[in-house]
Amino acid sequence: MEKTKISSLQFFSMLLLFQLGTALVVNVGILAGRDAWLAILIGMGMGSLLFAVYAYLNGLFPDMQPTAYLRVLLGKYLGTVIGIAYVVFFLNKASRDLMDGGLLVIASTLKETPLLIVNLMMILTVAYVLHKGVEVLARTAFIFLVVVILIGIFIVLLVLFSDILNLNRLRPVLGNGMGALLLSVYRQNYQFPFAEVICFVTVMPSLGHRKGGMKAGHLAILISGLILSGAIAATISVLGVDITERSVFPLLTMIGKASIADFIQRTDILVVMILIIGVFFKISVFYYASVMGMSDIFKIPYRKLLYPMAIVILLLSVTLAGSFTEHLAKGGKVLYMIDPVFFVAIPVFLLLVGFVHSYRSKARGQGRN
Amino acid sequence: MGRKCISGLLACCLLLFTLPGCWDARELNRRAIVSGIGIDHSDGGYEVSLQVIIADEISGKTGRGGTPTSVYHASGRSVVEAMRNVSREVPRLISTGQTRLIVISEEIAREGISGLVDFLDRDSDLRLSTKLYIAREGIKASDIVSALTPLGKITAYALVQKTDLAADELGANFAVEIDDVLRGLLSPGGGPVINGLNFAGSPEKAGDKGSLEKTKSAGVVVIDDMALFKGDKLVGWMNREECKGMVWMLNKMRKTVLLVKPEGDEEEITLEVFETSTSTKVDVSNPRHPMAVIKVKPQMSVREAGTEIDLRDSLALDKVEKAANVAIARKLESAVKKAQQMKSDIFGIAQQVERTNPKAWKRIGGQWEEIFPAIDVQYEVDSIIRNTQMRDRSYKYHFKKK
């Protein structure tokens, strides 16, 4: 495969859209109730630390796929097993995000369209872009970032001028104490969506300028954290904590309330647009990560794997959960029971092994001199 | 060659999915647009009346000279079932995406609205910004949605405009939307307040197209005073004074008129309040017996002075301001008394306590129902008269000199 290059700005747009993706629209961090915005900010901090871990690992082997350096660090057998586990994990995430997107589109606009059809359209588009390569995906991300920013500015102005914000609804801050807040962070806020950037380790080898890329990555996490936190704070101050808590898609409900002079209203379709764009990149990157991993482990060309995997993801997305409730319940549990293994435990373990590895290779290098 | 053929065929097959357009698209000519919904009591359930817009009559050219709206009824054990039962009468898909008004009969409101609020909250077509109303006793919600309106074509939309206008100009009510009601239902020891609707004239004739052919309409729907809820049940109606006081308490007052009689004067002066703000402070240092201080700062202008008063004289203005302070405090007090008498914390004082003193709230929150009626409220009104419109004295001032 030819060497692809992604600029820092493109990497930034990919990461930003990836994180806003589903998190902006679905009910995120609401475990912390009124303090959800704080929980997201703390989660963002932890996500930034985890990203530094992932970036460090990439720094050890700048041109290698993670599945390749897993084998270097952990040996052939353990490395392969963990590599396959990651591939499956990414596949699962890709199909979950596909379902998220499909369900929202059905809930909000295409009420009677079967989930399979909505998901099929989505995965076909994603597969096509990935077939063209990750470079094309990165360029697409930059174009869509502009669209999302424009929509974002419009929504912010709309909410500010329609006089529906009541910041009092955010008070009392920390009414349930620090414990409840930290529990929420532990349960969901750092994993979703911040630690999910782990799948970008497969994109990092394609970066044109590694250092700039990492800076762009941290900046993207910071900005997305601020946007998500602001969005949930705005939603709670418009709807109140109770309605927000019970909403499946709070942002959508909140935008439904906004209107300027009965003239500019019903703009919730813009939110659906943001979700579709975000979900597109979420699925793409997870999908890309799993295909890259698989092609590296089993030595099968990347493009040959692409379409069969599309079918796997599509079928998984309609069979993983029978209902939205089941989908959310599973997602919520996985988030703090299984995800930390992949997001935190293994990477931190690799980090330690990586320290030893780099120390030993340095020592060996010196010995040779 | 063979491979190209197959992939070409495959692409054609895939295109078949996209070419028919949206899967479940229904164009406007296949939809019945509902502008307002009336919900009445029926045996063992709800009777739903849908005000459907007849587009042909609105656009004018293709009209048959009929009414601009038409009303369909059906009953069911739940609101959704009733709405589906309506489809026996309506030839098109009922879409509630443009609904802006929902009227509930007082009969239902007295028994409790919790049964139907979930539908309003959950439905994905109805927006949370849809406004809620209560049809006063003796009037059916179906009569309200059946009425015609002389100004504007669609009654539901005209009523929504009336609500906003009355809230802006008179200040005895404010628009209540679905999410306001939900928050009211959930506020501890409180309840929502919802606008009432009444008829000026006869309800039967208001739905008759003939009523539009007279200058004095035989029946017009008017915005009435507001209904006070305790939990999900209507417990009483406020009068005009209490309504104004409540709007003021909630800091939703924009403009209003105020009649005062300054000390030593015989005639009343009419003031217009054009800017005002209210702040509430609750002191729970004695948790059994909280104290609340309401501070109001209205700015006014003189609109009518049928007396010999000299408004160039700042001492005279002071007197008017003092009289205004008393008058406003009386309104606020009447609203608070009414709410305390009904034991319903419609002002959200509970939330105020929770916000400012979460620890104290944890202790006393459980007994708020007993505490609320015993709250001591003080009113501090500081009126300022900013201008006197186009004249400083009334023409009557000259009679005084003689």
UniProtKB/TrEMBL annotation, chain A:
Subcellular location: Membrane
Annotated signal peptide: none
A GO term from the CC aspect: membrane
Keyword Transmembrane among UniProt keywords: yes
GO biological process, any: spore germination
Mode of membrane association: Multi-pass membrane protein
Main location: membrane
Keywords assigned: Germination, Membrane, Transmembrane, Transmembrane helix, Transport
InterPro entries: Spore_GerAB
Chain segments annotated as transmembrane: 12-30, 36-57, 69-91, 103-130, 142-161, 219-241, 269-293, 305-324, 336-359
Nuclease is among the record's keywords: no
Family label: Belongs to the amino acid-polyamine-organocation (APC) superfamily. Spore germination protein (SGP) (TC 2.A.3.9) family.
Name of this chain's protein: Spore germination protein KB
Classification lineage: Bacteria, Bacillati, Bacillota, Bacilli, Bacillales
UniProtKB/TrEMBL annotation, chain B:
Domain Spore germination protein N-terminal: 24-195
Localization (cell): Membrane
Superkingdom of the organism of origin: Bacteria
Keywords attached to this entry: Germination, Lipoprotein, Membrane, Palmitate, Signal
A Pfam short name: Spore_GerAC
Signal peptide: 1-25
GO cellular component: membrane
InterPro entries per record: GerAC_N, Spore_GerAC-like, Spore_GerAC-like_C, Spore_GerAC_C_sf
Domain Spore germination GerAC-like C-terminal: residue ranges: 225-388
GO biological process, one term: spore germination
Membrane topology designation: Lipid-anchor
Gene3D superfamilies listed in its UniProt record: Nutrient germinant receptor protein C, domain 3
Family statement drawn from the similarity comment of this UniProt entry: Belongs to the GerABKC lipoprotein family.
Name under which the protein is recorded: Spore germination protein KC
